[in-house]
Design brief:
By secondary structure, the protein is an all-alpha fold. Helix content is about 65%, strand content about 0%. It folds into three domains: about 5-155 and about 395-465, no CATH class; about 160-200 and about 270-365, no CATH class; about 210-260. The chain is built from 20 helices and no strands. Helix 6 runs antiparallel to helix 15 (about 350-360), helix 6 runs parallel beside helix 16 and helix 9 packs antiparallel against helix 10 (about 235-260). It comes from Hermetia illucens.
Length: about 475
């Protein structure tokens, strides 16, 4: 690699050679990218908004349909603006400056394009977009540093990031700050660790309200068995007697577990053992069910063609990972929180930190970088808002917008100069939105900066199984 100071030397090359070698007209290239990006954006956001409409679980009203259509058009306009204005600003800067500098090749035009585009999108979606691109940009920046030997991968680094961030958020959750700083992530934590950990006993919860036998309908089963006796159906009587016996055993075992010790400071109703085991088993089944459902949907064609057996889809080690993570996290957090209450004799929100760190060991069974970084950025966002409200941190006007623009610009910059350090899915996104034009752009003139960009593009195309696009539009 050449000396880093060589990047201060400008490269004199026309934009027709680098930015749009398929046409000599800057405006034609911008118009062509606008047409391509608008089609691709409509496909993406139509699927996103329709899926969101379906998952509401109710018949959409005319108002819902209207809002969905307007949302599709507005979000598509946002993404289209980000795409075509990138090439427009690239050419504009080249004409103004006369040469290409290291930051004007892609970073500055991408920053300006993002700045124009983000104001087209709905304000409610801007924070989601910012968190997403900041997530990918963080991973990309780490890959860049690792490729230069500046940093090295840490074993279970994802679990460390996830555990630290989740522990802080759980501490805020236990302090009750989630009511003031409402966020969907707090709802997920409530689902995983339980509403009892908010520190308040749920109203109307009473151990004597309903016995487990009544809840499971044992008396009804026994009554049905007695009725069968009176009718004289001996075979069915024996059948229901067996079921009733098994249910009675289960209920008695459940009652015994529920009646175990529970510290007075514990916010849950039954024993700590039941509280921990029931939460862990429930989350395990949820995670397992989600994975099975997802695999069935993705492999539906092969299942219908009998190229893949349902047994292999369900009974698979990969299918268990999400369930083990969710169930293990819930079980460990609850059991350690209860243990700390037993040891100290009182409850405190700070117990969420050691409990959260220990529970995050379960994340090693489902080490997803995207999830870890998302939780980290959520923690930073919420902590920053709390710091601003309490006067500990200054409020930076437009910080969210600047973060989005800086993160997106970094991704575009790496996509041009170092695509091997870019997440493959994001390269495919850039490839699709540009109709393959991002691969056609001639980077050979910039190889003097020592990043071997033209060679890296060829390797990226091979690794991602993508190819350079063939521009078909007259406005290309």
């Amino acid at each position: 690699m050449t000396n880093i100071q060589s990047k201060l030397v400008p490269v004199t090359v026309p934009c027709t050679q680098y930015a749009h070698p398929w046409t000599d007209s800057c405006w034609n290239s911008t118009a062509g990218l606008l047409l391509q990006a608008s089609q691709h954006s409509l496909r993406i956001y139509t699927a996103v908004y329709l899926l969101s409409l379906i998952t509401r679980g109710r018949i959409p009203t005319p108002r819902d349909i209207k809002r969905t259509i307007l949302g599709i058009l507005q979000s598509s306009a946002f993404l289209t603006t980000n795409a075509f204005s990138f090439i427009m600003f690239t050419c504009l800067l080249r004409h103004v400056l006369g040469t290409f500098h290291f930051i004007t090749v892609s970073y500055v035009p991408a920053f300006l394009a993002s700045l124009c585009a983000i104001f087209v999108e709905r304000p409610a979606r801007r924070i989601l977009l910012t968190l997403y691109v900041a997530n990918v940009a963080t991973e990309t920046a780490w890959s860049m540093a690792a490729s230069r030997g500046i940093v090295k991968s840490i074993p279970h680094g994802q679990a460390i990031i996830f555990g630290t961030s989740a522990s802080i958020l759980l501490y805020l959750y236990r302090r009750g700050l989630h009511h003031q700083y409402q966020d969907s992530l707090f709802n997920i934590f409530r689902f995983v660790v339980g509403g009892d950990e908010e520190g308040r006993r749920p109203t109307g919860a009473d151990e004597s309200a309903e016995s487990p036998a009544e809840a499971l309908g044992v008396e009804g089963i026994e009554g049905a068995v007695g009725a069968e006796d009176r009718v004289g159906r001996r075979q069915r009587r024996n059948h229901y007697s067996d079921i009733s016996f098994l249910v009675r055993i289960y209920v008695q075992l459940l009652d015994k577990i529920k009646s175990q010790s529970k510290h007075k400071s514990c916010p849950h109703n039954y024993s700590c053992l039941y509280y921990s085991v029931s939460g862990g088993s429930r989350l395990f089944m949820v995670g397992f069910g989600l994975q099975v459902t997802l695999k069935i949907v993705l492999q539906l064609k092969k299942l219908l063609q009998r190229k893949l057996s349902l047994k292999k889809v369900i009974f698979n080690r990969e299918t268990l990972k999400l369930g083990v993570f969710l169930g293990g996290f819930s079980f460990l957090f609850r059991s350690i929180s209860c243990s700390l209450r037993h040891i100290t004799g009182f409850d405190h929100p700070l117990y969420a930190i050691p409990a959260g760190l220990a529970a995050s060991c379960a994340f090693t069974k489902y080490p997803d970088v995207t999830v870890a970084l998302y939780v980290m950025w959520k923690m930073l966002q919420i902590s920053y808002n709390i710091g601003v409200d309490k006067g500990y941190l200054p409020k930076v006007p437009g910080f969210q917008t600047l973060l989005y623009c800086a993160s997106t610009a970094l991704l575009f910059h790496v996509g041009i100069f170092e695509p091997l350090n870019l997440r493959p899915s994001y390269w495919k996104f850039l490839h699709g939105i540009s109709g393959g034009r991002v691969a056609i752009m001639d980077r050979s003139a910039f190889d003097v900066w020592g990043l071997d960009s033209s060679k890296a593009v060829l390797e990226t195309l091979k690794l991602t199984k993508t190819q350079a696009g063939k521009v078909k539009f007259a406005f290309s």
